[in-house]
Amino acid sequence: MNVNERLEAIKNEAQEQITLIKSMHELNDAKAKFLGKKGLFQDVMKLMKDLPNEERPKFGKLTNEAKQVIQSYLDEQRKAIEDAVIKEQLEKETIDVTLPGKAFNMGQTHILTQVTEEIEDLFIGMGYEIMEGPEVEIDEYNFEKLNLPKDHPARDMQDTFYITEDTLLRTHTSPVQVRTMLDKGGKEPIKILCPGKVYRRDDDDATHSHQFMQIEGLVVDEQVSMADLKGTLLAIANKMFGEGRNIRLRPSYFPFTEPSVEVDISCHNCNGKGCNICKGTGWIEVLGAGLVNNNVLEASGYDSTKYQGFAFGIGVERIAMLKYGINDIRQFYTNDIRFIDQFKK
Ligand code: 2U9
Q: What is the arithmetic mean of pLDDT over 275-295?
């Protein structure tokens, strides 16, 4: 075989083999076989030795051309392999847009916050302002200005945690109303709703807690009557327990209101017929209220001959327990996720 024939044979063999290659690994082997130091061109070099001197440049050129052709086969095949890899990847990694998304574990506000915010919404709609105040209070705002002087027997029901002789954990949110009245300097009308945590010395059990939540409301103006209070209480009852509720007022006593009332609403479970929730009476006691005691108006700078007011107090836990059939108040505070998760909206 002469040099020319040998070159043609190598080129043909290279084309045949290289175009069938499927991996980079095989391609590198083929490169070594055809173009490497110990590759097939070694034979050609040996044949060249026998050629006359004047013919050698010509065959040298032919050899280089053959090497370039083989290199172009290798380049083309490399490109083909790379394209195939990309194609396969694209097919494998196609996104199926019809698959369901990953579930996102969302939290939610605590049930006491939900009940509080529902009531806040109702009152914001009626033009009330939401007011908050400190949980560590002075005796003067928590008791004295609310017609509860130091030796008053009603203080027994509101024993609390004392920080000093005169500072304590507030027993109700009423001091927020006192602070607002003082801020207004006895001059402007007031329409506020005061939600927040309160504290009382108590032995914790299923229905008692040393810490609980209240929402209190206060309206002070020049023409405020029991009729305004009744309309407001009826709105609260319907908002909290659904449309169609009725209310019943029973005379009661609170030092800060005169007259004072306990407010019952017609049972949301049996619609007033009598069931185990309302203990067969058709009525459930849910909140207390009254017209602001003149002493309380005067103590915070309001002229009681000119201004009147009404106030009410709601225990948030009690409302949530009635509404959702919760039978132990401690459930609200022990952070059992199985309890908390039941109130996802
Ligand atoms: C001012 C004047 C009057 C707030 C009132 C009640 C009646 C009441 C209870 C409901 C359930 C407390 O959480 S509870 O145990 N509250 O019955 N609260 S009138 O009267 C005020 C407050 C502030 C300046």
A: 95
* Rounded distance between C-alpha atoms, residue 217 and residue 77, angstroms: 84
**Residue 129 β-bridge partners:** 192
CA of 344 to the centre of ligand 1 (A): 30
What does the longest C-alpha to C-alpha distance in the chain come to? 136
| Mean pLDDT (the chain, rounded) | 93
Determine phi and psi for 134, rounding to 5 degrees. Answer: -70, 150
pLDDT at 43 over 80: no
Cα angle 335, 338, 342 (rounded to 5 degrees) comes to: 105
pLDDT band at 130 (very low <50, low <70, confident <90, very high): very high
Expressed in angstroms and rounded, the spacing between residue 345 Cα and the centre of ligand 1 is 30
Pocket of ligand 1 (CB under 6 A): 174, 177-178, 214, 216, 218, 254, 256-257, 287-290, 292, 296, 311-315
What amino acid is encoded at 121 in this protein? D
Pocket test for ligand 1, best of 257, 260, 261, 292 (most atoms within 8 A of CB): 257
Rounded to two decimals, the pTM is 0.73
Query: Contact at 8 Å (CB) between 17 and 76?
Result: no
What letter would DSSP give residue 154? G
Q: Detail the DSSP E strand segments found in 148-202.
A: 167-169, 190-199
Running DSSP on this structure, what letter comes out for residue 252?
A: E
* Calpha distance 211→320 (Å, rounded): 15
What pLDDT, on the 0 to 100 scale, is given for residue 289? 98
Q: Which of 50-54, 215-219, 321-325 has the lowest mean pLDDT?
A: 50-54
Neighbours of 17 (CB within 10 A): 16
pLDDT of residue 2 exceeding 80, the answer is no
